[in-house]
Predict the structure.
Amino acid sequence: MERVEYELRIIAEKVSVSSQEVVKRDTLKVYDIEVPESILDLGLRHEEQISLLEKVQNSLLALQSKLIDPGYYLCPRCGQKIVKKGFTKSKFHAVFTDHKIGIQKHKCKNPDCDWQSAPTTSSVFGTPIHPDLAKLQCEQGALYSFRKAQTNLEKLTVHRRSVNNHNQVKHITNEVGATLTQAHLQPIATTKAASAQEVILQIDGGHVPTKDPEKRSFEALSAVAYRPEKIIEVDSHHRQIKVKSCALSAQDDDLTTMKTYTLNAARKQGMTENTRVTALADGAQKCWSVILSLAPHCKKLLCILDWFHIAMRFQNVRGAVDDAFTETLEGVKWKLWHGKSDEALPKLELLMTNITNEKKRSKLKKLYNYLENNQVYLVNYKERDQQGLSYTSQVAESHIDTIINDRFKRTKKMQWTHDGAHNVLQIRGMITSNEWEKGWQAPVLSALVGAA
C-alpha cells in the first residue's frame, strides 16, 4: 500500500481585522490525500459534506453567540443594574444541521430581587429556525405531501431531524400560505410604462378531496394571466408561456377572494383601463363570474368558450353516435369551428332525435346543453386561428394538472379544508409564476416570528 505523503487540513481562524493577527485557530478536519481507487473515493461523500458543514457552522456560531444582545441593560423588575451569569444553551436549526448555542444570561445585582434572564434564540430572534430552512420546508410542503416532504428533507441531510417532521412542514407551509393569503388581497396598481395593449386570461377549476363528511370534494379555481407576446414555441406541437401571473383560491366565499386575486394577476401583466382582455374558460358559471368581474377594469373584455374543452366534449360523446351519424356530428363541430353556432345547435338537436338509445341520447343532450348555455361565448375559431389570435387554453391547460391536481388529487389519502388547500395554493402559485425566489423572505419571516 502506498504511503500517505500529504494531508488536507480544514482550519478555521479568528483573525483581527486591523492587525491581521490570528487570535484563535481550530483544526476542524484532517483528510489523508490518497489515490482515489473508484469514483466513490473522489471528493467527500454526502454524509461527510454534512459533517464538515456542521463543524464550520459550530465554529462560526461559537463566535457569533457571544455577540448576541439579549436586550437587557437594567433589571426589568426593580430597575437596578444587572450582571452576567453564565450562558444558556439554546437550539438553532440551520438548513442542513442542528446546533446548540450559548447565549449570555443575566441576573439582577440587587440582593433583594431574584430576577434573572434565560434568553433563547426564540426570545431574541423570534424563532430558532433559520428562514432558509423554513423556505425549503415550504417548497417541499407545497410541492409534495407533507410526509413525502419530510422524506425528501431527510435525504438532503442524510439523517432524520425533528425540525423536519411532517407536522412542522405542514405548520410552516400553512403559516406562510396564510400570510400570503392576506398579502395577495392587497390591490395592485399598473404603471403607465408597464401597461399592456392586450392581456390573455385563462381560468379553470380542479377538485380537492374534502374533510367534510357530507361531500367528496370542493372546487379550487386557477387563473393564469399573460401577454400574447410572451407565448413562445417550444416545437411544432408545443408552446409555452414565458412570463405569467397566477391566481388561485379554494376559499368558500362566493368567489370574492378569487375575483380580487384574478384582478391583481391581470394587473401584474399590465392590464389597465386601456387594455383589451381576451378570457378563455371551460364554460363553468363560476369561471365566467370571475372573468366578468374584470369588465369595469379594462377597455374591452372578450369572453371565449375554450376550443380545447369543446373538442374534449365532442371526443367524449363520439361513442354515443353510430357510424352512420359520425359525419353529422363532425358537421356540428365544423360549424362551431367556423362560428356558425346558430346552425350547429339545431343540427345537433336533430341528431339527438335519430338516437334511440336513451343513454347515448343523454350524452348528446349534455353536449347540447353545454353549448347552448355558453352560446354567447362561441366565436369564429377558424378566423381567430388564421389571424393568430387566442382561442384555446391548450397552451396552459396542463396548468390545472400541474398546480392543483398534482398536489391534491395524487395524494388520495389526504383530505383538506378550504383554508388548508388555499394556503398551499398560494405558495404553489408563486412558484409557478416565478415570483417565489424574489418574494419568499417577507412572508417566511413574518410566519416564523408570528408562529413563535
Summary: Residues 320 and 357 are 9 Å apart (CA to CA).
